[in-house]
Structures are given as structure tokens and as C-alpha cells.
Amino acid sequence: MNSLILSNLQALVQQAADSTRPEIQHRAVTVVRKLLSSDRNPPIDPLINCGILPILVNCLGGTNYSTLQCEAAWALTNIAGGTSQQTQAVVGCGAVPHFVALLASPFQNVREQAVWALGNIIGEGPQLCDYVISLGVVAPLLAFIKPETPITFLRNVTWVIANLCRNKDPTPGWQGLAEIVPKLNFLVHHADTNILVDTVWALSYLTAGGNDQIQMVIDSGVLPKLVSLLSHRAGGGLTGGRNIVTGTGEQIQAVLNCDALGHFDTLLNHHEDKIYKEALWVLSKVTAGNYMQAVIDAGLITTIIEHFEFGAYQTQTEAAWAVLSKMMISGNKEQVSYLISCGVIQPVCNLLSSYKDSQVIQVVLEGIHNMLKMIGDDPSEEVEYVCGEIKVFGGLDKIESFQNHENLDIRKIADRPRSQPRSGSDGRRNASQLVISTVLGSHRTEPEPMARFGSGLYGEPNRTETFITGSVPVPSLREPNRTGRFGSLKKVRFCFGSSILVLGSKPVLPRTEPNRTVETTNSNVGYLGYGAYPAYAGYGYGGLAYYKK
């Protein structure tokens, strides 16, 4: 700063300090306030260096000149709104007790300016917030929350209270919270959007303080109105409810009882990324409890899966947690079947192919594993459909590749189906074991040998399989119950619906030996895999499973 401007500032500060000439002092303080209100590099530090702070603080103490008090408070407010060092300088010169005292001023403009200054100081951090609270700021602030308070003033008061609630350590204290929450219940019904947004933020800060504070908010009766703001056009309502769903089961149920899920179709289709990401996060917390069916009943699954399939990385991750880690892993058979019917398999397999995040991969693998267990309890077309989908969309290849993954936890999950399956009392595997054997490459327990044939499956070209004599089912997705009888051929069941039964010399066509042929007789059966379609082929998904009759 050049010497001329500096000398002018020094002269201005001297005039502001001259209380013997009130008009000159008032004019000088007003000029200081205007300089500090400039949008372009206000000279905060030069004025501080010229000694303006104690002069402005002295101006706060007069009782006969309210306009001077207001101008001085305004100037100090702008300094306190600067850097941390500048805010600390205002506090260090003893301004805060004066601001608290001015909350009782008979002049509204003075009270309002004092509130604004305190808001800037409280917003600096928990230490200054604690200091201001210790001077008794909570009670006079709450006294301003009443219907007759002008809206501009009430906006500032609400903003300051939100700043008070933002600092969790320390908080305004249990007694202070007990006084604040009922006032927030009043403010949350206000028609002004600015007041609503700051009120919702205050409630969000309070509910982030743990289950006791969540319960205090619920007990205040504010929850129905807070839930009704979830899909408010201002977009802040979701912030207020997000922390409550991290509470106890009873607290989550209290939110659901207010029809919270009825707002989520709007939230999940919001044009702002941050809104629907937040909505997915909230749903992930809801489905973490025993409320999966409520999410299904609200008709949200299809939209969640759309985000899962077409969303950006972070959106897909949130959806994966909301759907996979909770519903696919912990859901019951009916819930898992519903997810399948909504088309969850393709995006799940796509996620395995495109993501490198180990945690997401583990969640997806756990989801697939549980899905197969759930639907595999009884033989059904659904088993064949799911197996086919996993195969077609690359899930099987990816799972096999994870058996060599660098992450030990992922390897364990990918290898889990290779453990020895248990057999039923009749020596036959149940459908779940068949599915896991077929799709995930489980170790097979050999039945009594009758005839062997080189199956030539991809990755195991030399493996032989045993087939059982009898009527041969040739299931496909279109004709799941079709059977054919071929003399004394062996009986084989392909869970993916791809059965090839041959007599005579026929190609086997494994990927590793595409030109290999085998001579079959009426005691052998061949399997033509991976894209070959002779007369009795169903859908050539590949994969082989069998059982002894």
C-alpha cells in the first residue's frame, strides 16, 4: 500500500477515535465500514495495523448513539468474516462480550448486527463457539425466535443457531440442546426457504451427535415435518433426515412411519447428482436394518438398479451398497428373487468387469454367492435363468479370474464354492449345489462309474465326466421340460439348458481343442460346448453339471 493511502487511513483512524466530536467520529467510522464492505480487497490488515480494532470496540459501548454502535458493529462483523487471524484479532480485542450485551439493545438494527457478528465468530470453529456459549449467548438468541420477529432478522438468528449446532465438540450442552430443539421445531414450519434450509442443517448437525440427540429430536415432534421436507425443492431436506437413519431400529422405524420412502422416487430421479447420491446413501442405511421389504414395497428397486447400471462411479458404488451388500447378502429368498426379476444380474456382472475397488468386488461376490444359495434350494427355471445370465454377462469368467486375485479376501470368496458340497439323502445334489458346481466350478463328487467321456470344458480339456443311463432331459430356456430318449444313452442335465446328445462320430469343440472329435457309441454321450448348435442343442451357454439318478 502506498504511503499516501496509508497516511489517509491513519488520519481516518484518528478521526474515528475522537469521541469529543461525535459527528466527525461517526462519519469516520462509517467510511471505515464502507472500506471494509468493499468487494475488491478490503484493507482489513492495514486498518488493523493502524489500530482500528480497539477504537471500534469502544464505539460498541456507548448507549446514546445507536447509529455509531451499528456502524462499528458492522465494521467488526466484516473483519470477523475474514481470515482466521482476523477473526481472532476481533475476539482478542474484547469485542465478544460487547456483542452479547448488544443482543439486549432496544434498537433492532443494533441487535441484528450483533447477531451477524457473533455468527461469524461462532462459525470460525469449536473453540470460539465454546467461548461465545460460555458468555450466555444461547438464551437471548432463542428469545428472538417468535412470529413477530422480522424475517431478515430471523434468517440471521437461524443461521447463527445452525453454526452453534454444527460444532459437535463441544456442543451447546445438554441443557442448551433441550432449549434449542423446540425452537427448531417452530422454525421448521416457517415458509421462508432460507430459514428452512438453515433449520434443517441445524437438525442435521444435532442428529450427528449420536442416538441420544437423535431421540431428543424425535421426541420434540419435529420428525413428521422434517420428513415432509425430504423432497423440498430447495434440496436440503434430505440432509436433515440422513443422520436419523444411522440410529437405532426404533429410530429408523420412526422415520419410515412418517412415509419417508414415499419421497425417494423423486429424490432418486433428481437432476442434481449430489441429491440422488445422498438418497442412495440413506437407502443403504435403511436396508442395513430389517427394512428391506419396505424399500421393495415402495417400488424403488428398479430405479436403484438403473443408477447401479448407468450411473457414474460414485453413484454405482452407493447403489451397490444399497442393493448388494444389504439386500442380496441379507435378503430372504423372495427378496432376492425380486431383485433378479428387476434385472440386477447384468449390472452386477458388469460391475465385476469394470471395477478395481476391492471392497466393491467383495460385496458383489458376496451378493452373487448368497443369490445362488437362495434360489438354489429347489430346482426351478429361475436357477437355469440366473446361471445363464451370469454366464452370458461375463460373471463366470470374472469370478474364475478372481481366484488368483492379489487380495486374499477376494480370493477366499471366489474360491468359496470349491468346498466339498454335501449330498442329499438319496446321494443326489440339490439344485443349489448344482448351480454352484456349474457356475462357479465346484469340486464334483463322482458317482459310481459307468461310462466316461472327455468333457473338454474350457480350462479343463482333459477332464472326464460320468453320465448315467436313462431318459435324457434336454432343457432349454424355451423348453425347460423337454426330454428325448436315445436308446441306452447316459442321462445328463445341463443347468444352463444346453444339452448335446450324439451317436457316432461328432465334434466336441472345446475352446482349447476346437478340432477334436470323439467316437461315441450307445454307451457314451457327448457334450458340444461353447457355441456349437446341432439338432438337440438348447442355448449354448456352456457349463456342465450332472447327478446320479
Automatic annotation (TrEMBL):
ARM repeats lie at residues 94-121. One of its GO terms (biological process) is protein transport. Transmembrane segments: none annotated. Residues 410-430 are annotated as: Disordered. Keywords: Protein transport, Transport. It holds the Pfam family Arm. Belongs to the importin alpha family. This is Importin subunit alpha-4.
